[in-house]
Amino acid sequence: MLNRFRNRALGPADKAVVLAVGVVLLAAVAFVVVRLLPEECGSGLEAAGDECVGVTATVLEGDPELKGLIRAVADENARAEKGWTDPENGQSRIPYVRVALMMPFTTDATSAMSTEQIARALAGAHAAQLRANAQAGPRYQLLLANDGKDLDQWKPVVDRLTKMADDDRAPLVGVFGMPSSTPDTLAAARALSAHRIPAIGPILTSTTMEAGYLFKTSPSNELFAESLREYLGDHPGNGTGFLVSDRREQDSYSADLRDVFLAHFGKEYGLKQRQASYLGLTGDDEGVPQRFSDAARSICLTRADTVFFAGRDHDLPHLVDRLANEPSCDHGKPTRILKVGIGMDPESTTTDITEQLRQARITLVGAASVDTRSWAGNEELPAGPRTFLKQFDKLRAKLGNDPTHQKPWGNKPLDDGYAVMYYDAFTVLSQATGRAYDDINGGEGNGTGPVLPTHDDVYNTVVNMNILGTRSGASCVNCVRGASGTFGFDDSPDTRKWAVCKPVPVIEYPEPAAGAKTKTARVHRSYEDIFDGACP
């Protein structure tokens, strides 16, 4: 029967059947192709794998939990534009500029930021935007610049940003974000510098993160180590140390921190002959990540009481777990794990981890960019943190009425310091923009309307937001009184655009009992030797 069908010429009915089958097959193929392609990304964005990367002042597709926050930023951006193009009720037109937040807005198991970290960073940036837009001077659009979950899609982002810098109507005056010290981050910063666009790294700490127009509001690993040295000067331990480091090749942060620990503490604590490595979670290196069994056994075998951890915060709980459950350890004697970071990551202070730390007599000792845990109950907070808390609480209340907002930042939204540091980074750019705007317009504008500062004007202002030495001590005239403390910048080759006089607190967790406080009495300040330790 089959052969007869093959040999028979197709009649009209057969042709109709074949044509119908062909149409169905084509439709099915088209459906599959469409399903495999990314959804329409929207203006200013383009598809890169399963992500939409690029720059937008409106809504972009991020993790679903971020929907409410992203919508709130888009609404404020629209308000800023409307205040210039179509002000309401006969109000005067208010010009606006653009500031770009460059970071991921989507996540997976090994991405550069978690959803919670993205939410906290975005909330801090948006709080700063709202504060700046409530003040005199130009308003600010907060552009969302998605460079991919692994930070490797920065080229299309930078291409779009450089074009915006030349927009006279609403110029791009600066970029901030870039949440991880990686080769891609450094390449992006250098590309922005080639176009003279100032960039602020809120949480970059690797000493390798240096580009001509890149400023850092967080201390470097080197500055963190100096703060830890002061702590260890008061609490040296038994002198036996152990170094645990992440061996991922693309993590400039961990590699740099390992080198800094060896340079500062290697000889004194014997780190070269007592060390172990592990594979961190972030990145695509081959192998099972977060294996700390060998490191835990070695720490216990050598009876080291001071462990230097050169890795990411999200890996630390796994080291604590292995160390607390290692049978060969003498948990009757205390152990310190020294780390550096932006704050105290909530993953390291969960109920389970805290119980493990207490039972095994392990204390986390972290040099930090900001210690928000110390703010609780402090009625004498400086103006910087007070203003931040007021604005952040106002934002939380506003979002609480938004049914799409899922409170993705967790129940400890300030502990890791992300919200604070992203707030301060935006504040640096808005403060510099406002000052340049006033200078250019003489406080009154000109006959043709206000002249907006350019990215060059903003850069030239930031490099002069410095701490001044006077006869009566250091003074803050043009510097930043931020939520994370008072600090400034200069163009000195000695400071390399790291924040000057930035507080570098040391946090102990779990906190010792009230009668057994061991914290260093004073807080170290970055480059304080320039001012003989008298930072404002």
Can you count the helices? Answer: 14
Helix amount: 25-40%
> Which strands sit side by side, in order, in the main sheet?
1-2-4-3-5-6-7
Gyration radius, to the nearest Å? 27 Å
Main structural class: alpha/beta
Q: Sheet with the most strands?
A: 7 strands, mixed
Low-confidence stretches: 1-10, 15-38
Shape: globular
Rounded mean pLDDT is: 89
How far from one another are the termini? 97 Å
How big a fraction of the residues is strand?
15-25%
In total, the number of strands is 19
Describe this structure in words.
This protein is α/β, with parallel strands linked by helices and 536 residues long. Helix content is 38%, strand content 17%. The chain contains 14 helices and 19 strands. It has helices spanning 2-7, 12-36, 67-85, 115-133, 154-164, 183-194, 221-234, 252-269, 293-302, 316-324, 351-359, 383-400, 418-441, 455-462, and strands spanning 45-48, 51-56, 96-103, 139-146, 172-177, 199-201, 214-216, 241-246, 275-278, 306-310, 335-341, 362-368, 467-470, 473-476, 480-482, 485-487, 503-504, 506-509, 524-525. Strands 1-2-4-3-5-6-7 form a seven-stranded mixed sheet, with helices on both faces. Strands 9-8-10-11-12-18 form a six-stranded mixed sheet, with helices on both faces. It is globular. The model is unreliable at 1-10 and 15-38 (pLDDT under 50).
